[in-house]
Every structure is written in structure tokens, then in C-alpha cells.
Amino acid sequence: MANDPEPTAPARVPPLYALWIPLAFTLVSGLLLVLHFQGRITLDSPVITLVGAAVLVWFLPLVTRIKLGENEIELGKRMSEVEMAVRQDAERVDALVDTQIAPEADDDGGAGPAAAEALDPDQAAILLALDHPRYNLRTVTGTRKESGLASNAAVAATLDRLKDKGLVRTVTGKSGTPVWGLTQKGRLAVAARQ
Fold it and tell me: What angle do CA 52, 57, 62 make, to 5 degrees?
């Protein structure tokens, strides 16, 4: 399935690349040409190079293939592939978030002061690390660093116990490693501890 060709959308050139940079080069080179014709400056190699670059830069957005020796680069196709991959990744993340969070939204799981009191200090530290405002999901290593626990193995074992209690959830990250986050019940347990 990974080798199946996917339809590619037409390449969309960013406005900065397609309009503003060529326009800036053209205005500067046009000004230099006007100054040359007025006799204020003489055209030397750098100015001629700039004028040539101004003309060339208008055609760069149209270049879809560059061949250097034995290597060939298809720019337009590659840009389309990258844009499509980013779009698909965003859709996968949205789908994962919907399937992982939505079923828990109605379940308060009985989390409250009693659930918060049943946690050992390592579990409480991990819940607080997962409640970090900058991250929705954390790796075991990130959780270890934030919680101050000694090893990734200890963090992984504690995360498994918290998962059994329904306080944390796990999904597979982009690189294939598990990432962890709080469930609604876990968020309530953290709120009860604060």
C-alpha cells in the first residue's frame, strides 16, 4: 500500500516565491537600468548579473525539473507530494484525536478527591508532567524529564499502571513510538490534586 502511487494535486507556488521575490528583483534591476541610462552609474558585471537574475527569477516558479549530472529533481511534483503528505498527516491526527478523546468525554470515571488520593508520588509526578500546558501528548523520555523520575523503564511501568486506572491514554506517534496523554479522568485527578 505504501508503494501505491497517489494522485497528486497541482503544485501551488507560494506567493512570496512566485510574486514578491521576482517583483523585488525586477524593481531593483529596473532602477539600476534607469540609473545607467541616465549616466549616473555604469553597468558592470554585478549589475548585469542582477539584471539576469531578475529575468531568471520570473521563470523559476515555472521550473518543474532540474537535472544536474545523473541526478534529476522534479520540484513541482515533490512540492505536491509534501503538501499532500502534510494534509494526510493532519487528517490522521484529527481522526486519532477524535477517536481517542470523544468516547471519554461523557465518562467522568468517578475521578475526584478519592482517585487523586490513591496515587503514589511517582504516579502523581507523571500526571503533572502529562498536564504540561505546552504538550497534549508526551513521549516516555519527555515525561521522565518533566517528572524527575530516574529511568524510562520506571516511567513506562508507572504509565502502564495509570493506563490500567484509566487516567492516561497512549497512541502511536509519527515515528512509531508510543506517546502518552491524559484522559478526562486523568485531568480531573490532576485538578483534584491542585
Answer: 130
